[in-house]
Amino acid sequence: MGRPKIIQNEVQCNNCGDIIHSASVHSSVQCRCGDVMVDGGMEYLRRAGHAQNYTERSMTLNETTINELTEYIEMMIESGRNPLGIACAVIRTLRDFGLLDEKKFHPNYNDNPKSQSFVAGW
Ligand SMILES: [Zn+2]
């Protein structure tokens, strides 16, 4: 399976509501009220602030799975797949690894479309 690999180093401040993430190992980010700070990027999860002041939102994935996914994406880029084709293939791969809430991908699933925007969170 491989060891856990950090794929998102992120918390939400329980006071001001800011969702902050550390994008790289030397990226230290503080919420606007100063109650919590994140650092470490994909290398380690460093926090400053009391644990009760924030909600952990980080994600990890076992190293084998993330390596297979990135190799698969490289293959698709080299073969000229368009971004939509790559996104669909990644979603199918996550399904195949049992990592998706599949009911949210069912054609009859209804949810607030605003909560499904990926770009807004970047
Ligand atoms: Zn805050």
Structural features, described:
The chain is an alpha+beta fold and 122 residues long. α1 (63-78) runs antiparallel to α2. It has helices spanning 63-78, 83-96, and strands spanning 4-8, 10-13, 19-21, 29-30, 37-39, 46-48, 54-56, 59-62. It has two domains: 4-60, no CATH class; 62-120, no CATH class. Strands 3-2-7 form a three-stranded antiparallel sheet, with no helix packed on it. A three-stranded antiparallel sheet has the order 4-5-6, with no helix packed on it. It is globular, with a radius of gyration of 17 Å. The two termini are 29 Å apart. β5 and β6 form a beta hairpin. The mean pLDDT is 89. The structure holds zinc ion.
Share of residues in helices? 10-25%
Termini separation comes to: 29 Å
Summing up helix and strand content along with how strands pair, one would put the structural category as alpha+beta
Poorly predicted tracts of residues: none
Sheet having the most strands: 3 strands, antiparallel
Average per-residue pLDDT, rounded, comes to 89
Per DSSP E runs of 2 or more residues, the count of β-strands stands at 8
Number of helical elements: 2
Please state roughly what percent of the residues sit in beta strands, choosing from under 5%, 5-15%, 15-25%, 25-35%, 35-45% or over 45%: 15-25%
Number of domains: 2
SSE series: EEEEEEEEHH
Write out the distinct hetero groups bound to the structure.
Answer: zinc ion
Coarse shape: globular
Side by side, the strands of the main sheet go: 3-2-7
Oligomer: single chain
Tell me the radius of gyration: 17 Å
